[in-house]
Amino acid sequence: MAKIGIIGAGTWGTALGLVLYGNGHQVTLWSAFSEDAKELDKKREHKNLPGVRLPGDMEFTDSMEQAMEEKEVLVLAVPSIYVRSTAKEMAAFCRAGQVIVNVAKGIEEDSLLTLSQVIEEELPNADVAVLSGPSHAEEVSRGVPTTCVAGASKRELAEMVQNLFMSPKFRVYISPDVLGIELGGALKNVIALAAGIADGLEYGDNTKAALITRGIHEIGRLGMKMGGESETFGGLSGIGDLIVTCASMHSRNRRAGILMGQGYSVEEAMSQVGMAVEGVYSAKAAWKLAREYRVSMPIVEQVNQVLFEGKDPAEAVRELMMRDKTSEMGTAAWK
What we know:
Layout lengths: L2 E5 L3 H12 L3 E5 L3 H10 L15 E3 L2 H5 L4 E4 L6 H8 L8 E4 L12 H8 L4 E6 L4 H4 L5 E6 L3 H11 L4 E6 L2 H23 L4 H22 L3 H4 L2 H12 L4 H10 L4 H8 L4 H15 L5 H12 L3 H9 L14
Helix pairs in contact: 4-5, 8-9, 8-11, 8-12, 8-14, 9-11, 12-13, 14-15, 15-16
């Protein structure tokens, strides 16, 4: 049994807490909001995971010191925009060699760093791993069979994460490609906004399939240019996470996109969803990276124009369809 602190008591942190608790570990969840911690402790139910009971001996706190004290592993599960500020708060209680598993998905807009890189900047003495893949909290919390990938620069750290989370309902693979895993997890949220917009415009399955297929092409092209492995983008944190995020109504990004396709503003859509819409925060960073690495990412470009320049979503789709004619296979030669 390991003592584990989960930093972030949102739906994803809570769902992973249930996985770890079910594996026999002692779990403490930290919330930045005192009232939320008290409500979770009293009601034993998360307001955004209705019907899921939280064990009576699962601990909840708003004290960072209590959440981190004597913990063998910390799971960082706050929204991407709060990763740096939360890591700064953790620094006072973080011992050398502390294992931190980042499960947030995003790219920091100003620095263009992945989230594990942000954590390593703020907590340079910690050992940082990542966990990602097609895994909606609503299903994980109910024990729906799910697969993820644990990434770390050292195999033994990845295997440690694998062993902590692995269960009959939660299968974990390992990978050394931390960069590729994080890029796949962050960039798929931007494509999912596009998929949602297409749904909001009442386009069909053909459009969705095109966005998923061309979307993973864009993600992989940038990811490999940055140093990620091609196999990663064809795996769980690439095409796997992209499919589930584009197709499921559990996806906040897809739901926000649907609202935008129906005419809601970005702010209105995010308010309606009521939880962090990570794709909105990653979109600018994705487009900056595309230009920095000179990679063509037309879907990401159009999403940015819809989000931040007031472009009509239907016009964005039309421009995608009417781009210059090209070949699907960039390297294959004609006989």
